[in-house]
Amino acid sequence: MKILVAVKRVIDHAIRIRVKPDGSGVETANLRMSMNPFDRHAVEAAVQLAEAGAADEIVVVSIGPRAATDVLLGALAMGAHRALLLETEAPLETLAVAKLLRHVVETEKPGLVLLGKQAVDDDSNHVGQMLAGLLGWPQATFASAVSLADGVASVTREVDFGRQTLALPLPAVVTADLRLNTPRNVALPMVMKARSKPLAVTPVAGLGIDIAPRLVVEGVAPPPARQKGRVVANPAEFAAAIAAALARMEPR
User: Closest by alpha carbon to 207, among 125, 85, 123?
Assistant: First the structure.
C-alpha cells in the first residue's frame, strides 16, 4: 500500500513572527524555514507504518516555491521513498491547496493520506477536511494513534469527553496531532542518502487547476503589547482590583 504525506514549509516555530511595516502580511525574508511541526508527526507515522509492514511506499508532497525542496529532503531523510513538489510562487488559500492535493491523490492513488492537523503559520485546520470532502473519502482528524489492518485504518483521536477510536475503510484521510508520536532525529548519513532519492518538480501553472484567491486581506497587525502587571499587597486589594476592572467592562 502507498501512503501519501503532505508537508508544508513554514517559518520555523522558534522564530518570533514580525508583521511587515506596511501591514500587508508577515515578514518571511531572511528567516529560517522548516517543516510544519504537525506534518513531521505525519511523516513519522507513515514511516512507522512502513516499518511495521503496513505500507510499502511513502510519497511526500509539498506545494510552494522551489525552496520547499528542503522540507521534502527532510521527509526523505526521515524515511520517505520519493517526493513531489508542486511549484508555485503564488500565495495559496486552503481550498486551493486541497484541490492541488486532490490532483496528486488522483494521480498517485494512495491507500492513505496523512498530513498535519494544521499549519502553524495560519492555524486554519482546513486542508485535511477539505481534501476528504473533495475526494469523498472518510476522514479522522487530530489523530493520536493510527494502525492499519485488513483494509481498515483504526484511528484514536482526542475529543472533549476523552478519546474516540474510529474504524475507517481505506482509502482515507487522517490528520496528525502532536500526541501521535515523537518524530525521529535525522542523522547526517540519512540526509546524504535522501539526496539520492527521487524528487520530482511540477509547475502548478500547467495543471489547469483554479487556485485564484477568494479572500482579500485588508491588513495585518500584531496583537497589542501586553500591559505591565501590578503587585497587590493582600487578597482584599486583589479582589478590589478585579471588581474595578469588571466595572470598567460593564456596558454603559
Answer: 85
